[in-house]
Amino acid sequence: MPASPVGTLLVLSLQLHSLILLQRPIYRSMLDTNHLKNVDQNYSQHFLFALMICGRLILTAVLLLMHAFLPFIKMPRMLDIGKTSDYLFDKDYEVRVRMMRTLDKDVSDTK
User: Fold this and answer.
1) Considering the entire predicted model, what is its pTM?
2) Are residues 40 and 76 in the same domain?
3) First to last CA, the chain
4) With contact defined as beta carbons under 8 Å apart, do 101 and 41 qualify?
5) How does the average pLDDT of the chain come out, rounded?
6) Are both 17 and 39 inside the same structural domain?
7) What residues have CB less than 8 Å from 22, skipping those under 6 apart?
8) Which of 13, 50, 75, 107 is most buried by its number of CB atoms within 10 A?
9) What integer pLDDT is reported at residue 51 of this predicted model?
């Protein structure tokens, strides 16, 4: 019995996925031992920063789930998609500014 096109496609995609993982394992791309130095934070500062973002996203996700089931419940403006997106962009900007300051400080230290 010939293999179905869907089954063949699935096998090929799994093989391709395995080859990609062998070339660049996930653990290598996820580990950054200089991350705290790069973002100019100590462990506690970084923990609180990440925890604040996580808390905001969890709260937004819970409210969106409630809104999905009960659409007559309005999302608070502060937690709607646009404001959440703005919040994440602002936090990303803060990290990038800290990283640039760290790079500038490292360059000036080498002179």
Assistant:
1) 0.62
2) yes
3) 71
4) no
5) 79
6) no
7) none
8) 75
9) 95
